[in-house]
Design brief:
It is built from 16 helices and no strands. By secondary structure, it is mostly helical.
C-alpha cells in the first residue's frame, strides 16, 4: 500500500472561492447566455459534432498509450444502483438516532452522495476497456470527437465532469459545499490509485505517487481554467476545453470544441435549475450528449420544484 501521509498531501484540494457562486447565478453567467442565445437551437452536442465532415486528425504518440490489462471493481456500483437505500424500519431507526444525537445529516450525506453517486457519474462518462463495447457517452468522446483512447484521457474527462458538479456544489451553503467537493475529490484520486495498481499493473509505489501528483497538478490547473471561462465568456471556456480535453491539438476540428462547449453549458443549465435539496440528495445525472436540453419557463421551473419537493417527502 502507498504511504497514507504522502497520498493525503497529494489529495489535498484548495478551498475554492465563493465568488464563483455569485457568477454562477448572475445574469451575465454562461447559463444566461445559454438560455438567451440557444432558444432556437435543437441540435444535440453529438449532432453538432457529426455536422462536420472534416477528417479526424491522427494522434501521434512517442509510444502507444498504456492500456488496462485487467478490470478493477467500479467501486460505486452499489450506490449507483441504489442498493444502499435503507428499508422502512432501518430508516425510522436512523431518523431516531439523528434526532436523538442532533446529527448533521446534510454534512454526513456528502460521503455517499458526492463520494458515491456523483463519483460514479463522473467516472463512467468516458470509461472504456479493450475488447469491450463502448457506452454511448464513451463513443461521443472517442469516436465522435476523435479523442485518443488512453488512461490519461479518461482522467481529463473525469476532471471535466468533476468541475461541472463542483460549480453546483459551490452554490450550496458553504460548510456543505466544502464537504461535497472534498468527498468527490478524495474518491476520484483514491480510484486512480487503485486503477494504476490493478489495471495498469504499476508495481512501484513511488511511480504511482508521482503520477498522482501530476494528475493533482493537472486537476488544479483545469479547475482554474474552467472557472475563468465560466466567469468570462464562451471563447475563454472553449480555449480551456481545447487545452485540457483536446490536448491543445492544433489540428482539432473547431466544430468538435463547440459541441463539447454546448455539452458543458447544457449540464450547467440543468444543474442551475435544481434545488439544493434535490442536488444534495444525488438526484442529478449528466444529460447524454445525444440529447437536447430546452430552456424552461418560470412556470415550468416552479412545477418542477414542487414535484421534486413532493417526491423527496415521500
Amino acid at each position: 500500500m502507498l504511504r497514507s501521509c504522502n497520498i493525503r498531501s497529494v489529495l489535498s484540494v484548495r478551498c475554492l472561492s465563493q465568488g464563483t457562486r455569485l457568477q454562477f447565478l448572475s445574469k451575465n453567467s454562461i447559463l444566461a447566455k445559454y438560455k438567451s442565445e440557444q432558444d432556437d437551437v435543437v441540435e444535440s452536442p453529438t449532432a453538432m459534432a457529426t455536422d462536420s465532415h472534416l477528417p479526424l486528425s491522427e494522434h501521434v504518440f512517442k509510444k502507444p498509450p498504456r492500456q488496462p490489462t485487467s478490470k478493477a471493481p467500479f467501486l460505486s456500483e452499489q450506490e449507483d444502483d441504489g442498493k444502499l437505500r435503507p428499508s422502512g424500519f432501518a430508516e425510522k431507526i436512523g431518523q431516531w438516532v439523528i434526532s436523538t444525537f442532533s446529527m448533521d445529516m446534510d454534512k454526513s450525506r456528502s460521503g455517499p452522495v458526492a463520494g458515491g453517486l456523483y463519483f460514479a457519474e463522473c467516472k463512467k462518462q468516458a470509461l472504456t476497456y479493450p475488447d469491450e463495447p463502448m457506452s454511448d457517452t464513451a463513443k461521443f468522446y472517442y469516436q465522435t470527437l476523435g479523442l485518443p483512447v488512453s488512461f490519461s484521457q479518461q482522467v481529463q474527462i473525469t476532471i471535466l465532469h468533476y468541475w461541472i458538479l463542483s460549480v453546483r456544489m459551490r452554490a450550496l451553503p458553504f460548510k456543505y459545499s466544502k464537504e461535497y467537493q472534498q468527498k468527490l475529490v478524495d474518491r476520484i484520486f483514491k480510484d486512480l490509485e487503485v486503477r494504476m495498481g490493478t489495471e495498469l499493473k504499476i508495481k512501484s509505489n513511488r511511480i504511482i505517487e508521482g503520477y498522482l501528483k501530476d494528475y493533482h497538478t493537472q486537476f488544479l490547473g483545469c479547475v482554474l481554467s474552467y472557472d475563468e471561462g465560466l466567469m468570462t465568456d464562451d471563447i475563454t471556456l472553449a480555449a480551456a476545453l481545447w487545452r485540457n480535453v483536446f490536448n491543445a491539438d492544433a489540428n482539432v476540428d473547431i466544430r468538435h470544441v463547440e459541441a463539447l462547449l454546448v455539452y458543458v453549458r447544457l449540464q450547467l443549465y440543468v444543474l442551475n435549475k435544481m434545488t439544493d435539496r434535490a442536488f444534495g440528495f444525488g438526484k442529478f445525472k449528466f444529460v447524454p450528449p445525444d440529447q437536447v436540453v430546452t430552456p424552461i419557463s418560470k412556470h415550468q421551473e416552479e412545477l418542477i420544484k414542487q414535484k421534486t419537493k413532493k417526491n423527496l417527502q415521500q
